[in-house]
Amino acid sequence: MTQTYRAIVHNEFGAAAVLRETERTLTEPGPGEVRVRVVVSGVNPTDWKSRTGATATSDIPADGAVPNQDGAGVVDAVGPGVTGLAAGDRVWLLLSAYQRPGSGTAQEYTVVPAERAARLPDGVGFEAGACLGVPALTAHRALTVHDGAPRRLAPGALKGLNVLVAGGAGAVGNAAIQLATWAGASVVATVSSPEKAALARAAGAGRVVNYKDADAATQIRDALPGGADVVVEVAAAHNAELDLARLRNGGTIAIYANDSGGGPLILDVRRNMVLNSRWQFILLYTVSPEALADGIAAVNAALADGGLRFGADAGVPLHRFPLSDTAAAHAAVESGAVGKVLIDVSPSAGS
Ligand SMILES: NC(=O)c1ccc[n+]([C@@H]2O[C@H](COP(=O)([O-])OP(=O)(O)OC[C@H]3O[C@@H](n4cnc5c(N)ncnc54)[C@H](OP(=O)(O)O)[C@@H]3O)[C@@H](O)[C@H]2O)c1
């Protein structure tokens, strides 16, 4: 008998209202693929940007595109040739919909290449699993691209380094603070309000500066007397001056977004040469498979160690939506929800 399941799809690019619920037919995983019963789906800015078509990596297939890259659930079936994962394994998902528009996590079952399903450590819930993919792996990459960087973060791997995290209350910013702290770095974060400062502190930032203060540059200078070895940057063009003013000789600015209005990033060549600075751009979708594998391993080690946590007391408030309200979940992220927006896809499957 054909088995059907609930999925959220869109058949055109556009506002959150293009998302609608439908029924799909269960398909078998092909060679190298696993089928996962999704318990929780995580929403990131990339998901609504793809939905609008602005950054979509594929055309919409005839039966619709399913949104959301991140999620967590239980392996339900494995295809030929898959080793290391079996039915019943608890996993977190990464890049589920990248160049696979039917494989997003806003559906009860998804089929993904096995390397996009990572084992969830014992004791770590599906809720945390759905917070990981985009934010934690982007943060891991940003913390491992500097001169002499370890390939894989571990306790002590960033000992002695000063890390400046711009936007410390953001999802990636929070993961960067937690991972850098776990790896032994001293962390200073910037935010735009006292509420966000409290979140950045809860994540582990030793000092927090409101980047909107008139004397923000001075405060950052005071917080980082020796300068920053690594800047994890969410608003490259907007913050370029601030970053360069506090970069240590040989330091790296790891850029993963151009928020705060975007615009071109104009660099003074001589000034950067004198500093031996490194401006490293990051796009998770096109990071090498080796770097992704290192990120997965480090993120799992941090999770198992309690070095990466989720919820308000870790600086990441969680906002839950039922699958039928996926459009509202997308709208929440699009309007700047603070923390992580999660969708309960098949809650009973996770119990
Ligand atoms: N390149 C990649 O692979 C990659 C991966 C993940 C995410 N991203 C992108 O990165 C951005 C952030 O993602 P997210 O999930 O972390 O979003 P988020 O949770 O909404 O966080 C963004 C944070 O940036 C802060 N911010 C904005 N302008 C700032 C500025 N000038 N200085 C300091 N902080 C600033 C925001 O707070 P305030 O506005 O209050 O300051 C907010 O806390 C999005 O554009 C996303 O698409 C890219």
TrEMBL record:
SMART domains: PKS_ER (SM00829). Coiled coil: none annotated. Keywords: NADP. The keyword NADP applies. It comes from Dactylosporangium darangshiense. The lineage of its organism: Bacteria, Bacillati, Actinomycetota, Actinomycetes, Micromonosporales. This is NADPH:quinone reductase. The keyword Hydrolase does not apply. Residues 14-343 form the Enoyl reductase (ER) domain.
